[in-house]
From TrEMBL:
Residues 19-80 form the RNA polymerase sigma-70 region domain. The keyword Ribonucleoprotein does not apply. InterPro entries: RNA_pol_sigma-70-like, RNA_pol_sigma-70_dom, RNA_pol_sigma-E_actinobac, RNA_pol_sigma70_r2, RNA_pol_sigma70_r4_t2, RNA_pol_sigma_r2, RNA_pol_sigma_r3/r4-like, WH-like_DNA-bd_sf. Belongs to the sigma-70 factor family. ECF subfamily. This is SigE family RNA polymerase sigma factor. Residues 106-156 form the RNA polymerase sigma factor 70 region 4 type domain. CDD domains: Sigma70_r4.
Length: 169
């Protein structure tokens, strides 16, 4: 028997899952499998904390923060550091490219950034959040967002400028 909470959560997932996967894919610099894992972790955490989520002053900020926390948790897992990803999994249908608007060169350059810097850029420039909302999503000060963004942009310029194949963005 579905409760009202279950129905509300179901409607949330139906309406927001695609956007969460897009954001997670950007945060993982194009790793679609990790992005799916992050979305699942985020949705699990949101379901458990559904009453808190519903009382949140800024539900979008709550979701972004949960997604970033899931990324941070994932990067801390000991087995993640020793995992060897494969380009293609045999006998499987290819995943849909959900970041067609982001070039391969930019994804490769984003991969060179630490996760927090990457998250700062994604929220500031892909989602056009202001510094305060980005700070809220990352759980840090506005000054940290500004410095992380500036450092990330400097690193991107260096990576893109030093590799001619990536400079064609």
């Amino acid at each position: 028997m579905k409760t009202e909470r279950d129905e509300q959560f179901h409607q949330f997932v139906v309406s927001r899952r695609a956007a969460l996967v897009r954001t997670a894919t950007l945060l993982t610099a194009g790793d679609a499998h990790l992005a799916e894992d992050l979305v699942q972790s985020t949705l699990t955490k949101l379901y458990v904390a559904w009453p808190s989520f519903q009382r949140a002053d800024n539900p979008d900020g709550y979701v972004r923060r949960t997604l970033v926390n899931a990324l941070t948790d994932e990067r801390r897992r000991w087995w993640r550091r020793s995992e060897r990803p494969m380009a293609e999994v045999p006998d499987r249908v290819a995943a849909e490219d959900i970041t067609g608007d982001v070039s391969d060169g930019l994804r490769a350059a984003l991969r060179e950034l630490p996760p927090r810097m990457r998250a700062a850029l994604v929220f500031r420039y892909f989602y056009d959040l202001d510094v305060a909302d980005t700070a809220d999503a990352l759980g840090c000060s506005e000054g940290t967002v500004k410095s992380q963004t500036a450092r990330a942009l400097d690193r991107l310029r260096t990576v893109l400028g030093s590799n001619p194949s990536l400079a064609l963005l």
